TrEMBL record, chains A, B:
Residues annotated as binding Mg(2+) 5: D209
Catalytic activity: thiamine phosphate + ATP = thiamine diphosphate + ADP
Function of the protein: Catalyzes the ATP-dependent phosphorylation of thiamine-monophosphate (TMP) to form thiamine-pyrophosphate (TPP), the active form of vitamin B1.
Taxonomic classification: Bacteria, Pseudomonadati, Pseudomonadota, Betaproteobacteria, Burkholderiales
Name the UniProt record assigns to this protein: Thiamine-monophosphate kinase
Gene: thiL
Organism domain of life: Bacteria
């Protein structure tokens, strides 16, 4: 199967909203009047962003999901994407399920494939995604202000739990592992929430490298600091209650580490004025996405952890470096 | 050097025309009113698109040039690009010259880096480029009509000559080789010509896979055929006269093969009504880019080669398959 056959068979579909899709030197996009185009690129490599064992259907989903998550963090509505793909060989047993998983999410999000490139080489998936956002309304990392609340969508840390099982450093009851593995392999980008938070959130980022690291970008770019309630944060680990029910439970250090520095979560961390708590909850309800308030933004630079009673937790964030 | 240090040091520059550049979840682009956004992605891999021996300055140039060539083929004006980069290691001796070559071309073309991704892995350079084109004026592959002339910009085949020297199948006088090697390693995208041809050319494509193959896309998508004057085409090989002057000269089969199926040329092949020859020449003069008329578009499907007197050359294009 040659390059053009491969494209025709698995990746060429009629562009519905874009003026020109796959099959010319360029695709053409026509943002609606008053709209800006949000753009993000992510490159996924085996061993770094996914394991060789992953089901290609889930991988197709994830490759687009991590990009849609960047659009979500800007409050943009998905529009289109390009796919550049390096493949060791043109293997239909991989291409068919990969494209199926990819297009299932693309169709669900109204995001159409408009172009790309295929070449032979070590497996590498590079997607560039395009979304629309009304001019001036994109959620940025730089808008957090002292006094704002700090929120996180969904749950954090489950993908990391699954990874540690794959690495052999942890064992989990099978149903807990399968649920954590699904979070790792098929993350749900918070696209609807991101759009619902336009005009409500003051800053946002998607949590892909771990909450502390990603929150650090907001703090630096906004020139502020934050205090996180570690007790509230620990409730974000979805597997936590399941583990306790199964008689297991996690070492507290590992539990907190997964939540604060786990990575691969694709949730949104965002800030909003304390006066807008009702608006945040309304946006969350509209997007059918739970949100949890885990801290507050402060003028004093740096990141502080406190327990449920507000007492400082003396722990250097470096203690999470064993996750690096 | 970590990922964020690497980005800061070599790839983070202030966005001048885009509302938001490197450093947030997404970049923001704001096409001017009435403009469509032309988008193209290319992935470059060592061994396929460049040799390990290439100077990183030239590689930085080429990685962007092959993408700008796609914009040129659509008649779009360069605006911005994203860069996703997989690197075996963060080697400053490679990153500094690579980024220097990249930005030299980017600055010359007014095309700014607005985002991307870096990760560790086998060297892979994936650029997505954005350009502006007035709505409805993009040059497409589908617009060629019977009676149109077939034109090619610049020269063809020199990159292939250089590749064959690297492969050891050919030897060239040193000055001829260095000139051909420059064409292979540092191609000049025909950006100004593409824009000048808006409203003049009926179809266009960039010649990256070889003239016959790329012209085939125009013919299929336009539902037409073509006859190429092989004698006129052979004049496109810039090294031809240089070789003859140096007393060398090429086997005719190899010469024609380099021109028709060489690859890696990044010239424009385009069609225009015969009545627009003056307009084509005016566009070429405006863009300071020579163009050569090498054939004509016909209603009869297929691609025919004739000699300087119009006599059919009985040769199957398959004869160029040894280049594959």
């Amino acid at each position: 199967m040659g390059e053009f056959q491969l494209i025709d068979r698995y990746f060429k579909r009629r562009a519905l909203r874009s003026p020109l899709g796959v099959g010319d030197d360029c695709a053409l996009l026509a943002p609606a009047p008053g709209m800006q185009l949000a753009v993000s690129s992510d490159m996924l490599l085996e061993g770094h962003h996914f394991l060789a064992t992953v089901d290609p259907v889930r991988l197709g989903h994830k490759a687009l999901a991590v990009n849609l998550s960047d659009l979500a963090a800007c409050g943009a509505q998905p529009l289109a994407f390009t796919l550049a793909l390096a493949l060791p060989q043109a293997d239909e047993r991989w291409l068919e399920p990969f494209s199926r998983g990819l297009f299932a999410l693309a169709d669900a999000q109204g995001c159409e494939l408009v172009g790309g490139d295929t070449t032979r080489g070590p497996l590498n998936i590079c997607i560039t995604v395009f979304g629309e956002v009304p001019a001036g309304q994109a959620l940025l990392r730089s808008g957090a202000r002292a006094g704002d609340d700090l929120w996180v969508s969904g749950t954090l840390g489950d993908a990391r739990l699954a990874l540690e099982v794959f690495r052999g450093t942890l064992s989990l009851p099978e149903p807990v592992f399968q649920s954590a593995r699904l979070r790792m392999e098929q993350p749900v980008p918070r696209v609807a929430l991101g759009q619902a938070l336009r005009g409500v959130a003051s800053a946002a980022i998607d949590v892909s490298d771990g909450l502390l690291g990603d929150l650090g970008h907001i703090l630096r770019q906004s020139g502020v600091g934050a205090t996180i309630d570690a007790t509230a944060a620990m409730d974000l680990l979805a597997a936590g209650p399941a583990l306790q029910q199964s008689g297991g439970g996690l070492d507290q250090e590992l539990h907190l580490g997964c939540v604060l520095a786990g990575g691969d979560d694709y949730e949104l961390a965002f800030t909003a004025p304390a006066a807008r708590r009702d608006a945040v909850q309304a946006a969350a309800a509209q997007a059918a996405t739970p949100v949890t308030r885990i801290g507050r933004i402060e003028a004093e630079p740096g990141l502080r952890l406190v327990d449920g009673r507000g007492r400082p937790i003396e722990r250097r964030y470096g203690s999470f470096d064993h996750f690096a």
